[in-house]
Amino acid sequence: MLVKVVALCLYTALIIIIGIVGLRKTKTFSDFFLGGGKVGPWMTAFSYGTAYFSAVLFIGFAGKIGWAFGYSSLWITLCNSFIGVLAVWGLLGWRIKQMSIEYSISTLSDFFLIRYSSTFLKIFSAFAIFIFLIPYSAAVFMGLSYLFTVNFGVAYWVALLFMGLLTALYLVMGGYKSMAMMDTIFGIIMTVGVITLFISTIIKGNGFTTISASLAAINPKLTEAVGPPGLWPLFSLAFLTSIAPFAMPQLIQKFYAVKDKNTIKTGMIASTFFALLISGVAYFVGSTTRIFLTPDSAPNAFKAGKPLFDRLMPELLTNVIPSSLSVLILLLILSASMSTLASLVLVSSSTFAKDFYASYINKKISDQKLTRLMRYTSALFVLLSVLLAYANFDTIVTILGISWGALGATFLGPFVWGLFTKRVSKVAAIASSVLGLSSCLILYFLGMSSPEAGTIGMLVSLIIPAFDYFRFKI
Q1: How far apart are the C-alpha atoms of 102 and 441, rounded to whole Å?
Q2: Cα 279 vs. chain centroid, distance in angstroms?
Q3: What is the CATH number of the domain that holds 343?
Q4: What is the number of structural domains in the chain?
Q5: What pLDDT sits at residue 33?
Q6: How many Cβ atoms sit within 10 Å of the Cβ of residue 333?
Q7: Angle, CA 123 vertex, CA 117 and CA 124 arms, to 5°
Q8: Fewest CB within a 10 Å sphere: which of 60, 273, 360, 452?
Q9: pTM score of the predicted model
């Protein structure tokens, strides 16, 4: 416990120091939001990867999906890595940077305004970003708080308050400058941490063969290509988490900030390997929860004999990892989550400060005042996310499904089509965005699971502009 407390204190001090350094280097809005648009390949790669994966993966997804699907959850790893990372970087990365220069834009909402000449789409997208990134941030805070509760024995609300204050402190101080520097450190910690986690799990389970045999004895489908829930649930999870990154604002922002084309080439390879390692280990370890955890060995992870999915991984990590290395895993998940939170907060606050306030309320706002407003709205976003996390109304997977599904359904069609062709009209873009989001939310409120509802909403968003494109082409 003493080692954990000391490590956490040192970690907090490091974040504050980086925040101060970033504060001194942040002179303009571009510095705060995009690091001046001159971020190199390794910082960008780690920033993308650490924004993609967080406590949502290690605590929520690894626990619930690993338990339910077993080894077939690794299909999600492959899709995330080669579609959500490699394809996004290769197909969109440099095109996004070029478009940001051509249109003189720095946000996704600005892109919609310039590309489609649509004020409605700009405002609609800005509100969608701010609203639907709040539950995503709340899910990250929930995962971290569960982890802290298990590791330090503190109340859930205490852990939540600490994480909220820490996130607000380092981001409000330095913006993207401090975030990019910290992401490199976070990425190194995550890499060392997951390797340690993988080795410890194999040792604890007496080898991969024994682990596989134990899973097969519980349910043979846990080691097959498609796990017990079936193909459609597996497909919807893989599709949601791999296709949504093509239009997720906190990931798209990374490409606005890149330095040059070589940054894209190097960062693409680095971030793909990073994704394979991080998500692969997370889902593999998550699949072993059925082996290592029972109502007797981990009573806090079960209720009436049924698993509490968001409690599985925190309990597993305390059972699998040797006590001498547990602090490394704590820092692993903390690092992943802090970076994700920083990206979410930065993008969300920009939608209010730049896309709404500076565009329609006070068009003559100075750069200095705009940067200050970004700091204030960042703190507000953290507060709203913490309050939602405190409500704790559903599982992490469900909350993330709502967030990613809604955002993907809103942006996927108009952004991807608009990036590569002029054939898609403003009407088609608006219809794609509105109907995609509506489909997602209606299906969810009618009782469909959030990943499945999100998948259908995203497909609607992608298909509608296609009709417009081919009509013009004919």
Answers
A1: 34
A2: 12
A3: 1.20.1730.10
A4: 1
A5: 56
A6: 28
A7: 100
A8: 360
A9: 0.84
